[in-house]
Amino acid sequence: MYKKIKLKDKKIENAINNELTRQKNHIELIASENYASEEVMKVTGSILTNKYGEGYPGKRYYDGCENVDKVENLAIERLKKIFNVKYANVQPYSGSTANAAAIAALVEPNGKIMGMSLSSGGHLTHGYGINFSGKFYQSFSYDVDERGLLNYDNILKLAKEIKPNLIICGYSAYSRTIDFKKFRQIADEVGAYLMADIAHIAGLIAAGVHPSPVEYAHIITSTTHKTLRGARGGIIMTNIDEIANKVNRWVFPGYQGGPLFHSIAGKAVAFNETLQPFFKEYGKQIVINSKAFAKEFQNFGAEIVSGGTDNHLFTINVKKSYNVTGKDASSILQQINITVNKNTIPNDQESPFVTSGVRLGTAAMTSRGFKEKEFKKLALIIDQALKNKDNKSILKGLKKQVLELTKNFPIKKSYWD
Ligand code: DSN
């Protein structure tokens, strides 16, 4: 809930209440974060946390599952309706376990997978060396081209050399539209499966402001708490019967034990919100805001990776634009109550812990009611902070402006009104 809590455990009470203050008084620009509604949080903190129920609705290894079966079935039906798919699994604990189960359903251990590199905007679970995906599979990566864009000819060329069993598309820091049809053509040409990880853009697809991979991908995975604005967790979808069975078996008993019913209920309530007309408006506004935000930085002379954005996020090359590393830029902005994350840029010379970029996303502040006007104002605040990083009095003035914005745009408890 977006109000202070009281607990016997004072240490946890303090940490949560301080986090509430932080969330209220900071402008949240981490592209993977959002504000779940109070109803989503209410069910996530409910008695459903007490129940075990390995298996699937109607076929459990425990008794007393008649109510949680209803919850899980509702989550499944709502998710199928949002994305127009035949099969959905709502049990993955996170996007990472969803990806683990999805990859296992399509590729034998030590098979070949091909995803985008981390520095180009990919995800750990798409084949990064120290992740399960880089350890249990032979992993190969493609990059964006010198313009910062997906280059389908280059990807096809690499796929022909590697002959992967699986190609993964869908990213953590790619600001342009993904052509899923082209990816499927590439996959078909080399005899690979196609997996679309839509964790970042799921809400935009649901709102109809990004094309859907449903017609093209053999498997779709996602998280539920980014642009989808729900309870934290993962999901897997497919239209193919044989793959659906494998997915179910790889989620349970393959990678997971008992489903987290409180979390599944949170997903179900959020999916119902996604199905309401207001969600379409929300998705549209996220993208309008993102484009206006990025353009304003460009007006100030900053360099955006790929030259702009079509979705909810973009990465600024802060090293080139402001002569600071991503790590330093992020900590300067933290001083004035703006939260971003440092992010590698294509061919980054800095380590992933330092980086040359910061990634900015508009989903969370759009939930708080920001429109283009506020995002343009925010771009000016960030630009001024990075240009005057050592001037304490300027930073103090900028922080005052941030606090004014957070006060005027409080976190909403519900999105129904
Ligand atoms: N950690 C998420 C992100 O920030 O994009 C991806 O899992």
Automatic annotation (TrEMBL):
Domain of life: Bacteria
Binding site for (6S)-5,6,7,8-tetrahydrofolate: 118, 122-124, 242, 351-353
Gene Ontology molecular function terms on file: glycine hydroxymethyltransferase activity
Pathway(s) where this gene product acts: Amino-acid biosynthesis; glycine biosynthesis; glycine from L-serine: step 1/1; One-carbon metabolism; tetrahydrofolate interconversion
NCBIfam families assigned to the protein according to its UniProt record, in alphabetical order: PRK00011.1
Reactions mediated catalytically: (6R)-5,10-methylene-5,6,7,8-tetrahydrofolate + glycine + H2O = (6S)-5,6,7,8-tetrahydrofolate + L-serine
Assembly: Homodimer.
Record EC number: 2.1.2.1
Protein's job: Catalyzes the reversible interconversion of serine and glycine with tetrahydrofolate (THF) serving as the one-carbon carrier. This reaction serves as the major source of one-carbon groups required for the biosynthesis of purines, thymidylate, methionine, and other important biomolecules. Also exhibits THF-independent aldolase activity toward beta-hydroxyamino acids, producing glycine and aldehydes, via a retro-aldol mechanism.
Family from the record: Belongs to the SHMT family.
UniProt entry tagged with the keyword GTP-binding: no
Record's keyword terms, sorted: Amino-acid biosynthesis, Cytoplasm, One-carbon metabolism, Pyridoxal phosphate, Transferase
Residue ranges of domain Serine hydroxymethyltransferase-like in the record: 7-381
Cofactor: pyridoxal 5'-phosphate
UniProt site positions, description: Plays an important role in substrate specificity: 225
Enzyme superclass (EC): transferase
Protein name (database record): Serine hydroxymethyltransferase
Modified residue annotations for N6-(pyridoxal phosphate)lysine: 226
